[in-house]
Amino acid sequence: MRPVLFEWGALKFHAYPTMLAIAFLTTTFLAVRDLNRLDPPVRATTHGGLFAILGGLIGAKAFWILQYGEPSKIWQAIFFWTPGFVFYGGLIGAIGAVLVYVLYNKLPILRSADACAPYLALGEAITRVGCFLTGCCWGRQTALPWAVRFPKASSVHWYMRNTSHELTQADLLTPALHPTQLYMCLGLLLVVFPVLLYASRKPHFRGAVALLYLFLYGVLRFTVEVFRGDSGRPALGMTLSQLISLGLAVISLVALALIKSTVVQSPPNSRIESSHD
Question: What pTM was estimated for this model as a whole?
Fold first, then answer.
């Protein structure tokens, strides 16, 4: 684990914000490139990425305050440079902010969403490396051979010392834990991202790739949450993120089925126009 990646003079480059910055720059460039390569092109600019990162940070902070802090202090979400983020809040915030950008610039919503969906998965995969290096979003205890013990500088060690009191100052390492950050990273890189990229480059009905992202992500996150150790299980033995993931997977699957049903049942001259991006 390496919470601080490197130092340059008095500057410290912490793992999570550094990986977040890399994810932002990489995915913004790739999404804008692909949007402008569509036929006809969608004339998006990197300004859309700025909307996404600001909306995402504020949304992630707001969700964290609602889930772990005091809801009356939701206004503190504007202080997004402080620790504490929840992905689903970031997803909602980013989508809302980008929608404002898309509407203001009169860009096609569904075509834009389909082109950007693969890079949303790629961006989170990169950011999850920062989670692993920092030691946040940790897993439950396990005896599996690939289990990880986090050092004193990690978030999980601090939590186990000061909140759950499972460790003392004398303990140098945490118990062996599931590396759930890497589970998410590998699932996104090996399954979600390549499937979405393939689907986005084949003829598809507008909005289908975005819905496929919600389905695949919901299934992956629901599965990984089984091994998470940092979240309470408020209902039916599931975490809040698991409940949201289940809802996303079901809703997106139903929506995809309805679209397919509409296309199959419609006469040829009234079928939904497919996207040959």
Answer: 0.89
